[in-house]
Design a protein that fits this description.
Blueprint lengths: L6 H23 L7 E4 L5 H10 L4 E5 L2 H10 L4 E4 L12 E7 L8 H10 L1 E12 L9 H10 L16 H8 L3 E14 L2 H5 L7 H9 L2 H14 L5 E13 L1
Parallel strand pairs: 1-2, 1-4, 2-3, 4-5
Antiparallel strand pairs: 5-7, 6-7
Helix pairs in contact: 1-2, 5-9
Keywords: Methyltransferase, Transferase
GO biological process, one term: methylation
InterPro entries: Methyltransf_11 (IPR013216), SAM-dependent_MTases_sf (IPR029063)
Length: 252
């Protein structure tokens, strides 16, 4: 699965959704001035930028395992403490943050429970640990249209519906297994407008994430068939795509 890609490619693929989602997610997590906050799996900084807007760069840290994303985020927000690290091994001390957030990350952790437990470790007692994952299982993901068409054309395709946290109630279950307290779940929804079909389609060909890997692995003929069928299914441009994410908030 590929995330070692240029930051601008990821921004065109997922940033168009993760930026507005970051606003709703930070609201749900209760991020407010005076807090110190860690963004786990920051990518090129969709959520990080929103956290900086709320609490100031000096009070925000971020980690991501992808060197291109880390480099891009350091350039974008030079005053933020940005480090290369995985969620399961955070390079911070116990209780360093008032809140630790992971946007669209838990389903890609090698061990989601360990990752959430590590997020709790670096959060002060009583502080907030929060995470969100697209509703891949319920068809609410912004990627669902493309995955649905892919399944129609190839019934054996393996989509993202089975990933951790991608179905209702699973993030709450993982948070409980990680030892978190006062676990609360919700569904966050955002909407993005696309001026043309190609604006929507092209980022899927960049090879990012499970869907990008799948599309890149198709031959030219099958890729063209997928594109054509998506164009038939989607409304005439301009059109809007809705994305919904399951979210969980808990106390360390």
């Amino acid at each position: 699965m590929t995330f070692h890609v240029p930051a601008d490619a990821y921004a065109r693929f997922m940033g168009r959704f993760s930026e507005p989602l970051g606003v709703a997610f930070a609201d749900f997590a209760g991020v407010a001035p005076g807090m110190t906050v860690l963004d786990v799996g920051s990518g090129p900084g969709a959520l990080t930028t929103e956290l900086v807007r709320r609490v100031g760069a000096a009070h925000v840290a971020a980690v991501d395992p992808s060197p291109p994303f880390v480099a891009a985020l350091r350039d974008r927000l030079p005053e933020v403490d940005v480090r290369t690290a995985a969620a399961e091994a955070l390079p911070f001390g116990d209780g360093d943050f008032d809140a630790t957030l992971a946007e669209l990350v838990v389903h890609f952790m090698s061990d989601p429970v360990a990752g959430l437990r590590e997020m709790a470790r670096v959060t002060r007692p009583g502080g907030v640990v929060a995470a969100c994952v697209w509703d891949h299982d319920g068809g609410g993901s912004p990627l669902s249209t493309c995955w649905d068409v892919a399944r129609d054309l190839d019934p054996d395709v393996v989509d993202e519906s089975g990933l951790a946290g991608a179905r209702e109630g699973h993030l709450e279950q993982l948070a409980t297994e990680a030892g978190l307290a006062d676990v609360v779940g919700t569904l966050l929804t955002v909407e993005v407008e696309f001026a043309t079909f190609d604006e929507w389609w092209e980022p899927y060909t960049f090879g990012i994430g499970p869907l990008g890997d799948y599309i890149r692995g198709l031959g030219d003929e099958r890729r063209a068939a997928l594109r054509a069928r998506c164009a038939e299914v989607l409304p005439a441009a301009p059109f809007r795509i809705t994305g919904s994410a399951w979210a969980v908030r808990a106390r360390a």
